[in-house]
Task: structure prediction
Amino acid sequence: MPAKMQLTKGNEALAMGAIAGGCDCFFGYPITPQNEVPEVLSYEMPKRGRVFVQAESEVASINMVYGAAAAGKRAMTSSSSPGVSLMMEGLSYIACAELPCLIVNVMRGGPGLGSITPSQGDYFQACKGGGHGDYHSIVLAPWNVQEMYEFPALAFELADRYRCPAMILADGVLGAMMEPAIIADNAPPPTVPEKTWATNGRNGRAHKNVVNSLVIDPYGLRDHNLKLQAKYKKMQCETRWDTRDVDDAEILVVAYGISARLALSGCKLARKEGVKAGLLRPITLYPFPTEPIAECAANKKRVLVVELSAGQMVEDVRLAINGRVPVDFYGEMGGVIPSPVEICRKIVEAAQ
Amino acid sequence: MPAKMQLTKGNEALAMGAIAGGCDCFFGYPITPQNEVPEVLSYEMPKRGRVFVQAESEVASINMVYGAAAAGKRAMTSSSSPGVSLMMEGLSYIACAELPCLIVNVMRGGPGLGSITPSQGDYFQACKGGGHGDYHSIVLAPWNVQEMYEFPALAFELADRYRCPAMILADGVLGAMMEPAIIADNAPPPTVPEKTWATNGRNGRAHKNVVNSLVIDPYGLRDHNLKLQAKYKKMQCETRWDTRDVDDAEILVVAYGISARLALSGCKLARKEGVKAGLLRPITLYPFPTEPIAECAANKKRVLVVELSAGQMVEDVRLAINGRVPVDFYGEMGGVIPSPVEICRKIVEAAQ
Amino acid sequence: MTTAMNQQDGTNRTPDTEQLVDLKCVFERPQALSDKPFHYCPGCSHGTYHRLIAEMIDEFGLLDRTVGICPVGCAVFAYEYFEVDMIEASHGRAPAVATGVKRSLPDRFVFTYQGDGDLASIGMGEIIHAAARGERITVFFVNNGIFGMTGGQMAPTSLLGQKTTTSVDGRDPRTTGHPIKVCELLSSLEGVAYLARVPLTSPKNINTCRKYMRKAIRAQTEDVGLGLVEVLSPCPVQWGMKPGDALHYIDETVVKAFPPGEFVDKLESPIKT
Amino acid sequence: MTTAMNQQDGTNRTPDTEQLVDLKCVFERPQALSDKPFHYCPGCSHGTYHRLIAEMIDEFGLLDRTVGICPVGCAVFAYEYFEVDMIEASHGRAPAVATGVKRSLPDRFVFTYQGDGDLASIGMGEIIHAAARGERITVFFVNNGIFGMTGGQMAPTSLLGQKTTTSVDGRDPRTTGHPIKVCELLSSLEGVAYLARVPLTSPKNINTCRKYMRKAIRAQTEDVGLGLVEVLSPCPVQWGMKPGDALHYIDETVVKAFPPGEFVDKLESPIKT
Amino acid sequence: MLEQTILAGFGGQGVLMMGKLLAQSAMEEGISATWLPSYGPEMRGGTANCIVVISDDEIGSPVSESYDAVVAMNQPSLEKFESKVRPGGTMLINKSIVPIKASRDDVEVYYVAANDIAEHECGSTQAANVVMLGALQSVRQKLKSHSIEKAIAYVFASKGQSVIDSNLKAFAAGMTSLHQNATAC
Amino acid sequence: MLEQTILAGFGGQGVLMMGKLLAQSAMEEGISATWLPSYGPEMRGGTANCIVVISDDEIGSPVSESYDAVVAMNQPSLEKFESKVRPGGTMLINKSIVPIKASRDDVEVYYVAANDIAEHECGSTQAANVVMLGALQSVRQKLKSHSIEKAIAYVFASKGQSVIDSNLKAFAAGMTSLHQNATAC
Amino acid sequence: MDLCQIHVDRCKGCELCVEFCPKHALEMSEGRNAAGYHPAVLAHPDLCNGCALCAEMCPETGIEIYRRQKRARQDATDQG
Amino acid sequence: MDLCQIHVDRCKGCELCVEFCPKHALEMSEGRNAAGYHPAVLAHPDLCNGCALCAEMCPETGIEIYRRQKRARQDATDQG
Ligand SMILES: Cc1ncc(C[n+]2csc(CCOP(=O)(O)OP(=O)(O)O)c2C)c(N)n1
Ligand SMILES: Cc1ncc(C[n+]2csc(CCOP(=O)(O)OP(=O)(O)O)c2C)c(N)n1
Ligand code: SF4
Ligand code: SF4
Ligand code: SF4
Ligand code: SF4
Result:
């Protein structure tokens, strides 16, 4: 069946997007609000001769991903905030061992057990390093169901290109909502670059391959870290962002994912009230669109950052702007979704 | 035996400091380079009728701490980078449930399995949120064996005062090195404020106590988060830092823990070479000395941040300075300890 | 037309005083159970097991010195239902949390309440080690063969062939293995003092459950070791069955995979109950 | 005076060619073992077990299609010693990593190599679940009753009374429980195809170990289920014993707590070996 | 055009399906739509609701502070969402099972005996949600009725023609219910 | 005064103890000291070394780029640390087991037959480390010899007077070893 | 007063009490309670002997059982 | 050439080969190898019959064993 427009739930789109993106193996443990992801994949994957394993825990999930990624496969897991926290050791290993893979976090209200309502409280964890040591994942933030469908393929591609973990940072709203989206039920699997480093059995190879994150000599580990850092620098060219109505704006709103949608409505309302507001939406949270934000903000009166958190991405926006333009923050926590009206109010306030 | 000067290993000082700080229960799983902490406590705690349990894992350790802290006890665990990563879910729970406790991270080279050499690559994890959701721990960074001994008591006191987790962020050098330090072998246990909220059995109490991090209603969870944020604001008054030779300095070096010692030597060397350099050492990494750094940096030519990482605390320094003074960074990773000579070189470069 | 029948909540617990003269309440809510209505689905045995635990707390006079640990699972709100101090653990870690409490306060009665996802999937490490250490805790384990709370996914205890949202064609041993039998598994661990399994399917079985629970509690109060009672429990909603049918299904099918009975009993002087 | 005796490294493996005529090498390094000298302590059986695994890879002709998973523990560098593809797992998670590999590449031979801290402490959840799922993997499990790498702390397998750096007065069952017997524990899980325990203490026992290993490998290659061979191994350094004494200690004392033998054998047509 | 609607009721009353039909209809017309469910933390009973936004422009927020229309299939939903209707907006109440009246006087309120109509005119209370959808359509008309009928046919396709037919009938019954018997106040 | 020293050898040669004695002596004199060990990732053999810094000022870094003195108890240590001596610094080599010579000509090198002296003059090769400490003291003299003797008495207190005595003897033997037989070059 | 008191608003209509009542004294009602469930009712109070099997099976602890006392005010003995 | 070839630099002096040699052909040497260990030596080559028990016990795989062939170049049979 060719790709066609279908009313689709975000989580289901993500699952089908993973399949379209050539995901070979899924390992995961149920957790709300992303349960449709493993549920869909539990029958769609075996149907296609691919691997689905319900792991005993998130710790096991991430380590199964590590194994399958080491074996050269496109492997992924999906979870939500507390479950992702349990993956931090494994993620740090994966990053250090330079294995491409995909981790999906459909964020929910935290901290702790929190609630199952949507939130964006895990930005720091995703972008700064929830695990130990200096590492990064490529972090993609979809804002609609179409991107929920498209980003797994993009994530796998970038992960393979840079041999690093990629993360899709969504939230409970994006996971649960339905929207029309163009979905291919049977896309041909993408061509994947050959992974000569994979530990998939020598099969005639002259040397053995080793996947490892242990470098006991400090200078060796330093060099390995420098290599990782050089890679992160190189990755900067993958920075993605999107804008709406920024050219003539006096107020620049910066928001990602679901917040960006709320903010978009807020900007529209603000324009109705006579305040010119525009939206910059980071699509990659890592690499972060530092330059684009700095440039875009340069001629603005103020910048307003909107997040479903106490203020996390706002730090990266401040670092980007480095004091040149005042940066305000508006956030809601715990699963409360701020209304566009409230965002509009903040924009209007900022403009005064 | 009264307190007296003893040549003491950092990890042992930390263990004895925990005892002096009234630690009732220790739960931990071995990991280099902090093994002396559980080893010392495994015999010193039972001797005093206190609890020592070698947990089956770090996940179990942090949850045992959660239980003992809920029961109203001064509870702690100690680990090193990969082990601490495994505690991220539990830590987020503890922060949300507002339980006072102590987590020690004697950092080692990362990411991944990395090495057992010293490092400061877990600043982001400790200070920004390695776990999910918006939460903070009080983070203390000792720089000598004396502080390794004194900070557990301080950490417990602050944790009790704010009902939050406290973390001691040390590193492999501080854990392994010996220095003269004033250690009391049998300090009287400190008086601990009564914990009326503790789940320690009703014992005549009219109401039951509940320790929880689940707030299923978004507005409830929002309010709980606002309460936490208000607490974090209130905590700012606990900010601690230290300076050396900053008044006349043209270059301000900012560094914590072992880096601060390296930097201190570097500053001294730089002064010998005619460059006036001074050191500001954050002692609390959270709350971060934002104001003090901003003030101290105001009349400086440049700021140099030194870390055993790819650059983590430097972001908080940049946020503090907000573009007013240029901020440079010098870091080493993987367990390589930069020599004071190298730091001096960077200072001299910055001065030019 | 459908409409509400009785708007007043469970406040009519005390019958008219005139009638008290010759009527005595012989079955009522235990003291240790709060007034809060359960949030469980119709016919779910979580409520039944809660009541039994509350009865035991009353019977052993433990109200004032109990600390209970709730799981993450449908019973996540269990802290609302017991009138004792309660702690909400993270998913699967209740035995570690209980260890923390019990070691801190050895004279308190500490129990965990755990589902099969909680105990037998993510929390396997913690229950095994608590059992191996012989922690003096009592574990009330609800085996309903499924992840109830998250929408009916396969559990390690799901039966072969069982249809769940992650095994829509039925559990296949080739890819998902065989059900884990927790009592059998734990029985090799020397720290375990009492282990039993019982279906919560009839008044008779419920009474057997009480007997087992008493022993599992005494395993703690008499300082023998860890006590655990596994109840075979229905999840009518996720099984897609009516409550009554779910109970019959347990009695006819589930017990074949999970034979009821006592597996370990190290109590020195068993009291006849 | 002490001085170096032989500066050249293991390069003199081929004897003079003249002598080759009537001398044949009957015991040499297996092909699957690299030339790299082990980093283990004198008398540590990790090296012995490595050699046996390499022998098996040679014997079964698996060099070209094996993926091995190293533990975190003294054998953390095991990837340097085998001439097959190797993955370094995080502490305790080797069975999960192996699951990821085996499910991806069902025709490869996948083994984990794990210590008792790795497998029986932090990794308990992963080994139980891999066994319950019946993963087609082979587990080489080294039980030396202690955490070697981190400096001799108590393991879940330490004997009662054993002195370690975290039980300086000897392991006390009241606070630390009893040793966990992994073979006994796993034997109730239906996904397990082969389970055996053997001390690596004599040429005879080493040969028994070979027999067991063959079966544990066949459990995988013949698609029956998970195979595991537990070796009782010395840690002379952390036990504070001379290597020879450590072996005697195993034969006299350790085997009492950990009886050797085969615990599960579901191979259909056992080949006489 | 921007139309924001809340549909709420007991679990099992089909309110999520009702919303899905609305969103599907919008898609049929080639305009934007979002559907966002909200339910308790567990599978266990309680109320369910969903928010549907349709627009001929790109939809930013899938939620709002106030709504153009609220459909309350039971009493708790009425109590919870009555305040969410924007002044001048519309409220539909399933009078078959809601014994009370709305208290707002700045909104249009319609009472629809959805269960009764479904039972008596379509032979199954199951279709009460589609009856209500018909009623909603009759008073808000943001989409073509034909699109909704196509959506019904599409969504129930797997259940067979008879289910489609009875739902089409329910929709039609709902469409006319308020014309015959309007009780706006 | 700032004196930075590396002490290195096989595990078991007591180099960590040697460093500890130095640091303890500094503490006895009321001046600052740091002792930092370094060893392989495992407990398994290999080399051990420690860095001792003593100073009458607050000590910043416990490590340095180059050192005032390096003590090599075995050949790998000589090879590894020879380059770490600062020009003009001092190097002591345990000639009992190191068959080779140092190659630097910008540092003072002393060869001490520490094992032999320990064996022949103190009756135990165990004390080779303290012999070496004596030799170090004889050529660097940053601390009072009396402080080191006090440190020896303190550190070995738990092992009894005879151990203390033999170590004091070893220290004395080390102190004089280079005067009798100096081989600086 | 009836021996079997069903708390209407606790009832979730699971029917277990009805199924396990040996005397067939209980029935499910047609009406709904506040939570929307059809609650059980003691349709035949005369059949009920206070055996409490319904209460034992009720997952909601929604049933209280009373028994006639031989003598009033003698709370300690329960031989009803 | 000796039947038992000990790789001096692999040897860690654990003495297991010496202990398990049924012929007492091996001894520990006084000298040290590069790693600082006292290695085992075939002190009595004449006693060694190539039984390989030492090699089996050597944790370092540090011993190779040779056997005399009845006939040279007949590699397939090993009856030495
Ligand atoms: C770390 C983590 N992983 C996953 C979840 C999601 N989760 C909540 S309950 C549950 C399983 C519930 O099953 P069970 O323990 O059998 O209890 P039941 O709901 O059947 O009573 C899961 C997977 C979570 N809350 N936290
Ligand atoms: C998450 C984590 N926790 C702890 C450690 C530290 N650690 C390394 S090896 C080990 C235990 C080793 O014991 P065992 O598995 O028995 O192997 P052995 O060293 O005895 O061969 C521990 C606790 C670690 N590396 N990672
Ligand atoms: S989902 Fe299942 S276990 Fe959970 S409350 Fe409902 S019936 Fe009970
Ligand atoms: S510490 Fe023990 S297990 Fe580790 S290499 Fe040494 S002897 Fe072997
Ligand atoms: S058993 Fe309880 S909940 Fe179920 S129908 Fe009877 S009274 Fe209602
Ligand atoms: S067994 Fe091997 S390592 Fe041990 S002494 Fe003999 S040759 Fe050396």
In short: Residues 2-184 of chain F form a domain with the Pyruvate-ferredoxin Oxidoreductase; domain 3 fold (CATH 3.40.920.10).
